[in-house]
# Entry
Amino acid sequence: MDKVVATAAEAVADVPDGATLAVGGFGLSGVPNVLIEALYERGVSGLGVVSNNCGAMESGLAVLLAAGRIARVTGSYIGANKEFARQYLAGELEVEMIPQGTLAERLRAGGAGIPAFYTPAGVGTQVADGGLPWRYDGSGGVALASPPKEVREFDGTEYVLEHGIRTDFALVRAAKGDRHGNLVFNKSTRNFNPLAAMAGRLTIAEVEELVEPGEIDPDAVHLPGIFVQRVLALTPEQANSKLIEKRTVSAPVTKGAAEGTVSA
# Structure
């Protein structure tokens, strides 16, 4: 089955207001920026987003966030996104913060058909006991708090029950994909992208390189095409457009220092 769509607009044409989205990426790595921009152009709003973070440096999900298109975020990291923090504290945005490993497993479990699982992460904290602020009232008070979760003991250790995540759509970015939707991710872009793709009932992948079926060694496939319904081939410009969140460079070395000499 050829799953390739011609344009980003076509790929997201049926995403409605209020849809839930699992979105791949970690910081600026592996973010499906082209599909997110297409959603922004469509004007959809009231979105429920499940992603590790909500964009950075005014890119990725930060584009939708700044435009007021996101109603709820399930994630594990706010970081340096000041607009995310502002909307959360002002009561404009509902936010469910969960441990990063739990978020990853909730996405994977949802995609694997596992409704819930037990984990020790969060036991003895508000993650399990409830009371985490999901929404503030804008005046410093909590308008909506997380409920307590079931805790059980196994072999003398307590575990908290977490539920798998399923979303209406998933948006991911891959280094390579074929027309059947088999995907390969490059290095750290493999962190949340495969998991987000599994969690979506309809998954859309933007790929930096589109190849024909059979060109990817089956042993090299990171995500089978069964999890992907649409594939968008990026242009070379889109594929090469990658921002750097924090650039670190070494101080210039003087000629004398390079040669090991010391000035008097």
